[in-house]
């Protein structure tokens, strides 16, 4: 699925690009939509680290010629491994070489593995490579995977997530109107509406890069971002609210990205509004220090 296009994925993609250039054929990254889990076990869709749009951008940055999104249906889930390879890889994509992770599974009930893919490659005339999974240089027991990164994000450990992704974890969405409380407190916020299944970090306050995504020249601003329910005001709805530093602009309706650089603190309930405001000033100072110019 290449969710996150993390450092492990990048190794596979770079190898595929290398093989494609050597054979003078296009390099292609293939993914499915919707996520197979949603079809096989409805309601079990994992949180998404990247939108399809963001995934396509990251893949293109790695030099890939074609980003191919195939529909995943109930019929797809029931295809035996050999049928999957013949109909999709051979007949539809005309593959010359296939690069996958050593834990790659395919076909009905994930019965196919790299050994079967290699055998089918010999039968149908393509080369199959199973690459070793990438592990952390500081902790060999940690394998860089989408599952691991989702766990980091869910725990609010955005530094560990960045180490595995090779860049900060990003939320993308549209700025929508909130209840205006931030403006009343002297900290007007841009409230982000994110797509369904987005992997949102644990409740807390973070230092982020606020990226304006419209147009060819993306602007990067600094922000202190609150994720949570605003417990001081007995809020119930979980929100992502960004106070953009040193800028007084109206961002409503714009598509933006939030790159999570560091976690500043846990979400807290304050006994008074004055106590909250004092802490918000400290959060802004810490965000400014961590994000630099």
Task: Give the overall silhouette.
Answer: elongated
The CATH superfamily of the largest domain bears the name: HUPs
In total, the number of domains comes to 2
Q: Percent of residues in beta strands?
A: 15-25%
Provide the residue-averaged pLDDT: 94
Largest sheet: 6 strands, antiparallel, barrel
Order of helices and strands: HEHHEHHEHEHHEHEEEEEH
CATH fold name of the largest domain: Rossmann fold
Rg from Cα: 22 Å
- Overall structural class, as computed from helix and strand content, comes to alpha+beta
CATH architecture of the largest domain: 3-Layer(aba) Sandwich
Q: How many angstroms separate the termini?
A: 36 Å
CATH secondary-structure class of the largest domain: Alpha Beta
Q: How many strand segments?
A: 10
Q: Helicity range of the residues?
A: 25-40%
Strand arrangement, largest sheet? 5-6-9-8-7-10
Q: How many alpha or pi helices?
A: 10
Which ranges are low-confidence, i.e. pLDDT below 50, for 5 or more consecutive residues? none
Could you give a short description of this structure?
The protein is α+β, with helices and mostly antiparallel strands. Helix content is 34%, strand content 24%. It folds into 2 domains: 7-131, HUPs (Rossmann fold), CATH 3.40.50; 169-291, Elongation Factor Tu (Ef-tu), domain 3 (Beta Barrel).
Description:
This protein has a six-stranded antiparallel beta barrel with strand order 5-6-9-8-7-10. A two-stranded parallel sheet has the order 1-2. It has a two-stranded parallel ribbon with strand order 3-4. The model has no long low-confidence stretch (mean pLDDT 94). The protein is α+β, with helices and mostly antiparallel strands and 293 residues long. Helices cover 34% and strands 24% of the residues. The protein has helices at residues 7-23, 36-40, 52-61, 74-77, 81-92, 114-124, 146-154, 158-165, 181-184, 273-291, and strands at residues 28-33, 66-71, 97-101, 127-131, 169-176, 190-193, 204-212, 219-228, 239-244, 255-265. The chain folds into two domains: 7-131, 3-Layer(aba) Sandwich (Rossmann fold), CATH 3.40.50; 169-291, Riboflavin kinase-like (Elongation Factor Tu (Ef-tu), domain 3, Beta Barrel). This is Riboflavin biosynthesis protein. It catalyses: riboflavin + ATP = FMN + ADP + H(+); FMN + ATP + H(+) = FAD + diphosphate.
């Amino acid at each position: 699925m290449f969710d996150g296009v993390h450092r492990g994925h990048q190794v596979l993609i770079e190898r595929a690009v290398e093989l494609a250039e050597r054979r003078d054929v296009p390099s292609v990254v293939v993914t499915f939509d919707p996520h197979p889990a949603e079809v096989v076990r409805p309601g079990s869709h994992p949180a998404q680290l990247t939108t399809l749009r963001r995934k396509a951008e990251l893949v293109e940055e790695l030099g890939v010629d074609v980003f191919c999104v195939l529909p995943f249906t109930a019929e797809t889930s029931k295809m035996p491994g050999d049928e999957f390879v013949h109909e999709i890889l051979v007949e539809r994509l005309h593959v010359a070489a296939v690069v996958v992770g050593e834990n790659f599974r395919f076909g009905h009930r994930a019965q196919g593995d790299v050994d079967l893919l290699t055998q089918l490659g010999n039968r149908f005339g393509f080369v199959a490579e199973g690459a070793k999974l990438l592990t952390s240089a500081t902790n060999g027991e940690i394998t860089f995977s989408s599952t691991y990164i989702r766990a980091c994000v869910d725990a609010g450990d955005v530094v560990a997530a960045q180490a595995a992704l090779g860049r900060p974890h990003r939320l993308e969405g549209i700025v929508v109107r909130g209840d205006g409380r931030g403006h009343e407190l002297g900290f007007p916020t841009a409230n982000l509406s994110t797509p369904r299944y987005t992997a949102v970090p644990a409740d807390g306050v973070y230092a982020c890069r606020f990226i304006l995504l419209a147009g060819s020249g993306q602007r990067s601003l600094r922000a202190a971002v609150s994720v949570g329910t605003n417990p001081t005001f007995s809020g119930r709805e979980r929100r992502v609210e960004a106070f953009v530093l040193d800028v007084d602009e109206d961002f409503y309706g714009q598509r933006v990205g939030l790159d999570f650089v560091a976690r500043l603190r846990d979400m807290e309930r304050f006994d008074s509004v004055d106590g909250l405001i004092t802490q918000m000033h400290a959060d802004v100072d810490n965000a400014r220090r961590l994000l630099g110019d």
